[in-house]
């Protein structure tokens, strides 16, 4: 078997050129005062409407400019939840949650106080099927929000929903928006929120370069340690590392391949964080594609991918193969994959049984170095199985449009897609994206299993741990048996940051700069 080697020197050379280009951008600052926090994210802003956010930079921004009832702590401490915009938040009955907002919450743009009516509007809006929010699942068990008074209310659920305090309330769907402002804007908005209420104000956006947040003087809660947050947009991890070393910013994720070298010789005044993230990586095999409708053909692809080469060539053997989308090392992780190793003879035999020869497929991928390197290894591995693969790279914004059914039927013609999602604390948060209602949204494999959907409903209602483990394991069996998935790994998270502060990182791997703490 031929091993696939990644030329790190070539990657570093390309990244260096990109880093040098970044230095010449007019909006790229090379120094900042002690009250400014400079962090790096990979993709640009697309929408600040919580119902339609994509992730990444929007995720980080919305934790600064909106308020939620509770929040999550650092992933290194198990991501415990605590009160944030609420002074009271408690499960009073299996299907009722009482809350009281902290006093003094105030909307920007002169829209008055934040009230329980805004909470009701925000939650019921995102749960409304007519809105078609991809995050509606977070409140699909919502019956209604009862307004008790200006600051208090009761969340009524249709059925018990175990993960609500860690998957709904502190995350995207749980961000509270202004009812008056949103209705004035016509019910939806994109990059210009009609009103915000959070520790920060959104004050500047230089497209594809930088977003600036400044401290909100009207915020009544815990004040952030930094008066300004500058979020720099750098797609490539290698380029970001070089820019950090040139003092372009104070916090960035770096390439996995750089981990050992950076740990051995970190930049001056730099701390290195190495943690297990919940971001899971897999190869989607689209059963809606005319070329992949036959289960045997999809299984041929599954048997033709050598995941061990990816783990060595891309991740420097710093992580192990995943047994599913649920985070390894947790009580919910599946014991093993059903297809554990590549078998090129088996792959060829399956193609022969399906009557398929000269199979050519397209692999859709984001065009950064890590994902491109992974795609190249998949391409080389499948070639040994007799399957030709053409890699089709996209930038982040264009990539997510490929599988969007609102853009037409193109999602049905995807063959293969290299995907990675930021996971959550509860297994349901990782499994939810493969339900039937996510086809043409985030379920790009076209996976449609009634048993999977029934198991999901049981999973979110069940309180007994052993039963929840069995349900989540069975759901991952169904995914693999469909031929629609090759589970690769959960990415290790490697971050470098200045030693002058201590960061807080959410379980999705994204920083929460609101909670960053300066050191004395």
Protein architecture, described:
The chain folds into two domains: 36-231 and 500-518, Periplasmic binding protein-like II (D-Maltodextrin-Binding Protein, domain 2, 3-Layer(aba) Sandwich), CATH 3.40.190.10; 276-493, Dipeptide-binding Protein, domain 3. Mean pLDDT is 91; it is low at 1-32. It has helices at residues 8-23, 57-65, 116-127, 164-168, 179-184, 237-245, 259-264, 295-304, 307-313, 344-353, 369-384, 396-402, 427-431, 450-461, 465-481; strands at residues 36-41, 70-72, 81-83, 86-93, 96-101, 142-147, 152-157, 200-206, 210-215, 228-233, 251-253, 270-285, 360-366, 388-394, 416-421, 485-498, 501-502, 517-518. The protein has 520 residues and is α+β, with helices and mostly antiparallel strands. The strands form five sheets. The protein has a six-stranded mixed sheet with strand order 11-16-12-15-13-14, sandwiched between helices. Strand 13, helix 11 (369-384) and strand 14 (388-394) form a beta-alpha-beta unit. It has 15 helices and 18 strands. It starts with 7 loop residues before the first helix and ends with a strand.
Question: What's the short story on this structure?
Answer:
The protein has 520 residues and is an alpha+beta fold.
Please write out the topology.
Layout (H helix, E strand, L loop, with lengths): L7 H16 L12 E6 L15 H9 L4 E3 L8 E3 L2 E8 L2 E6 L14 H12 L14 E6 L4 E6 L6 H5 L10 H6 L15 E7 L3 E6 L12 E6 L3 H9 L5 E3 L5 H6 L5 E16 L9 H10 L2 H7 L30 H10 L6 E7 L2 H16 L3 E7 L1 H7 L13 E6 L5 H5 L18 H12 L3 H17 L3 E14 L2 E2 L14 E2 L2
Parallel strand pairs: 1-10, 13-14, 13-15
Antiparallel strand pairs: 2-3, 4-5, 5-7, 6-7, 8-9, 9-10, 11-16, 12-15, 12-16, 17-18
Helix pairs in contact: 1-6, 8-10, 9-11, 14-15
